[in-house]
Amino acid sequence: MQLVVGRIGKPHGVRGEVTVEVRTDEPEARFAPGTVLRTEPGARPPSAPAHSTVLRTEPGATPPSAPAHSTEPGAVPADEPGVPFRVPAELTIEESRFHQGRMLIAFDGILDRNTAEALRGTLLVVDSADVDPPDDPEEFHDHQLVGLAVVTPAGERLGEVARIDHAPSSDLLVLRRPEGRTALIPFVRAIVPEVDLAGGRVIVDPPAGLLDL
Known about the structure:
Elements: E1 2-12, E2 17-22, H1 27-30, E3 36-40, E4 90-99, E5 102-107, H2 113-118, E6 123-127, H3 142-145, E7 149-151, E8 157-166, E9 171-176, E10 182-186, E11 194-196, E12 201-203
Parallel strand pairs: 7-12
Antiparallel strand pairs: 1-2, 1-6, 2-5, 3-4, 3-6, 4-5, 7-8, 8-9, 9-10, 11-12
């Protein structure tokens, strides 16, 4: 099973560094220099310019703004004329750091802002088999929680865990409600008293109004 640990955002500076939306509670370990991460295409953020769309990284797929002779719509040309840049299937972290609350990463071989822009929206993934289970029974990896049913202490089904957002103040369960909308639930014991992995459920006791925010 492939686990998403980050999503590449906009370039930072002119030397190929990028911002990364962290989707792991172990960013220092997941994004340590020398780490090799696999890539998957991601959806282009609504606010991003059209040329930032990144296509599949399999052979033959090309990122955005291709030259006229390209057969792929929306490819970004590399610095060498006529050679389209392709997002590699793997990226190696050269340097990582936090700056003003954001993760910044420099990848090996990504040396300028144009190439960094072509990575925007790419998902960074690891294999779940390479992720050790937490030592603390009260701690959980994201992939252990995603997909679990969310119920009240009385057994009323509220929806299911769509993903985990790692906010500065606390981790948040993103609850997908039966009607399709989402709600954010702080992953704290006062609100989430029990995680029943064997039973495939998370018990949530939300304060009044939390699910309506």
